[in-house]
Design goal:
alpha+beta, Glutaredoxin, Glutathione S-transferase Yfyf (Class Pi), Chain A, domain 2, 2 domains, 4-stranded mixed beta sheet, 4 strands
Length: 213
């Protein structure tokens, strides 16, 4: 069996796919595709992902792109613990949490705060404070919504971990590197406890990017 994942360790979406593969116990090869490299997007990657995004995925010749599709395929095609609830309401909450991450947490939390505070600082570039300020309300709302979905459960969709947890964790890992992100997390104790559980998982350690702290 050959499983290939095309992406980069710094990508939160690549990490989500890696987390799913790790949690399912699937051996895979990460093929580096640096979309932000000095040479730009490798032209051959457009044959795997026509929009030039990462990750892309291949399993014994079956090619797939779009993270949500990859995550669901990994869960359904391989043995291991189920990563999607069978209950219709819990499954709907999983999809809702994933959508919140994609639509709001990624643009406002990862790009609006983490990139400005952490990525730019590493390059010696000043943060765009206006962009940070405009991103804070949406990022805070994401934390509040995820905390509400979590409630007093162990994971976002119940007692067992799901794809929602694997989707949210890499983005919140980025925010945890910022003062604003840590403050928003601590405003929701149950979410902070969830984060501690997620951060302690072996899959999180196995997929840690070199930029993680």
């Amino acid at each position: 069996m050959t499983v290939l994942l095309y992406g980069a360790p710094y990508s939160v979406y690549t990490r989500s796919a890696r987390l799913a593969l790790s949690e399912k116990g699937v051996d895979y090869t990460l093929e580096m595709v640096d979309v932000h490299g000095p040479g730009g997007l490798p032209p051959e990657h457009l044959t795997r992902q026509p929009f030039g995004k990462i990750p892309a995925f291949e399993h014994d010749g079956f090619a797939l792109f779009e993270t949500a599709a990859i995550l669901r395929y990994v869960d359904e095609a391989f043995a291991g613990p189920a990563l999607q609830p069978t209950d219709a309401k819990a499954r709907a909450r999983m999809n809702q949490a994933i959508s919140v991450c994609d639509s709001y947490l990624y643009p406002h939390g990862v790009w609006g705060i983490f990139v400005e505070r952490v990525s730019k600082a590493r390059r010696g570039v000043a943060a765009d404070e206006q962009k940070v300020a405009s991103s804070l309300p949406k990022a805070a709302a994401c934390h509040a919504v995820l905390a509400e979905i979590l409630g007093d459960q162990g994971y976002l969709c119940g007692a067992a971990m799901s794809l929602a947890d694997l989707h949210a964790a890499p983005m919140l890992a980025c925010l945890a590197m910022t003062e604003e992100g840590r403050s928003m997390m601590m405003a929701h104790p149950q979410l902070a406890q969830w984060w501690q559980r997620m951060a302690a998982r072996a899959s999180m350690a196995q997929t840690r990017a070199i930029t993680d702290v």
